[in-house]
Design a protein that fits this description.
8-stranded antiparallel beta barrel; alpha+beta; globular; single chain
Length: 185
Amino acid sequence: MTGLAHRWLVRTASAAAAAALIVGGTTGVTFAAETDRAAAPSIAWLPTVNITASYAVVATTHPDTEGCHGFEVLGTGTATGAPIQNGGTWTQVEEACTVTIPGKYDIRGTATIEESDGDQLRVSYQLSAPLTEDNLVYPSGTFKITGGVGNYQFAVGHGKMNARVNLLDHSSVTCTLLGDIQYAG
């Protein structure tokens, strides 16, 4: 009987110790987590795509004079920034319509950035800008990474795109792409 009472006391003491550890441990962990969360510094977002392109464009009248009533635009130039390794060439094809969004240019296009080693990053974009009498137009919108060649074969991503267009000087258009890239493959 003494052995049975001793085992019962040991089990009871063990259960009480375990309960104290669980309750005390959980309380301590919860408090520590809350304390860590409150003390954690805010982290700034660092884009993995930060590209600036400078290029010249040739604009011709779009053949759809009712559904688009705008321009077909071809552009070539240079691009620098992340993730491009030593800069590259910029080529684009777009259409800038004036009737699809009332009072605005509706610009949809694709661009390819090619590095000197042949790797290519491809993007599609959609921008808009107010129709204005001013010579300077500032289209803005979004871009999406659609893959590429070489290191960018399985690339995906997206971000914001802004451009600066002088309607009287087609030789010095600029744009910036700011966002994220991921490699899915």
